[in-house]
Design goal:
alpha+beta; four-stranded mixed β-sheet; four-stranded antiparallel β-sheet; 14 strands
Amino acid sequence: MILQSLQIYYDRKSADPESRIAPEGFERKEIPFIIVIDKQGNFVQIEDTRYQDGKHIRAKSFLVPQSEKRSSGVKACLLWDNAEYIFGVVRDQSKSIRIAQQRLDFFNRIRALNIEEDEGICAVLHFLSSDNLVSLLEQSNYSAEIKETNPFMSFRLNEDNHLICERLRVVDKIKDIEATGDIGICLVSGEKGELARLQPPIKGVRGTNSTGGNLVSFNLSAFNSFGKSQGANAQISKKSSFAYTTALNHLLAKDSSQKIQIGDATTVFWADKDSHFEKYFPELFEEPPKDNPDRLSEKVAALLKAVDTGVLPESDHETKFFILGLSPNAARISVRFWHAGTIAEFSKRVAQHFHDLELVHAPEKQDYLSIWALLRATALQGKSENIVPNLSGEWMRCILEGLPYPELLFQAVMRRIKAEREVSFARVAMIKAYLNRKARFLNKLEEEMTVSLDDENKNIGYRLGRLFAVLEKIQEEVNPGINAGIREKYYSSASCTPANVMPVLMRLKNHHLAKLPIGRGIYFEKLLGEILCEIHSFPPQLNLTEQGRFAIGYYHQRQAFFTKSETSSTEE
């Protein structure tokens, strides 16, 4: 299903000349240096294609013949490669014999095209036949850098604007190269064709090495079946192999707008036809730009309105949408999650995710947080590298399938609250969303938590959280600026074993109330009475779910102190 969907996506993109997706047998590659020669094969100059892209320097991307998969063997790419293959640059004398073999293989691959009547090919062969290629290289200002970095290079005639490998005759010849491998039925397309022995590498997944990784590979005999080896164990034609890997590399490209990072999962997405949602989707999960921090909230608000009012574009209702999460696994790439559905289905599920996270907050906070910001709130020191492994993928699966959030998420949030004694907006939003989705799944709608303070909620955990917030507020008014208040000292034990802590805090409260102005004292006594009327005794302990409600009650009550006008309460 994954490979078939990617092949269909490739077919759609290849029919669009503006997509810039590589045709069969080619790929787009960043080539830092171009060797410019004349029709006689004489060296003219070396052209630098690099440019400044923000803080980074990037090379211009060109359409070149598909790269060869090599590990330790000698296998030249066609009409482009690194400086060792082209010039025979020897950086390590112990490799001089191997480099001579590389240079010869590069020359022979071009000659094997058998189109020397093409001016470009003829010129390259004449150039490579020179006995003093390194001395020609040294005529360039970039000689020292090229010898040191061994960059990719290709060729251009000085009269052309395009590379020699992009000349029409060369392109046609590459497309017409006859099949030399085994013929069989492709498991992806169902068509008969030449089978791929090895799959092209997938690049752009965070954490993989620079040479990329594979979705499909058989590199040990233990993985083989029925005496077959490598690609014969999963018959995929070269055509389908090229299509799905090119489509995936296109989605994973540096400048791709259809790629986001969710935890350790590099996530790509696409629709089966052009859709506004394809461009809109990443903005719902990415961090908003620093120069426009309101963008996420604006996009979510627009999505919620569209879903609530049923004004999604008519064409999007049945349009298929695909989401693929990938992560590195040694030399392979593993699938973390895969979801296929309609845009209407995903829109409703993503909207529900943000509905569930809605929570009262301070005015300076954004209405909605990205999934990255929420995940960091579950991690030690707020660092992404400390996010619990597999959490991001499992959470994304629950969001996209409309399921209750993973227990792992809830546990991670509760651990951080207990460890840091910080009941933040992000953490409480996740707790509320977790509890509400679980309540709906179990058909216990009466247990759903509200966005802001709920005076009618009689749940013991919620009431105790409110009580703790009031006790903390009383202490703060008596001792403003105190270094370590009751939250720092008692939050963890109060939320776990209230019977051990709450009586102590209630006695301490009496001393604090005596120091407050009469009006404030009456206000707090009344508030405490409203909360305690439903608490007949302090329970010995609260389970983890009740501890979550404790956190919500505490947060709601704290926010109520800042959002409600208490003017009438303070009048004597």
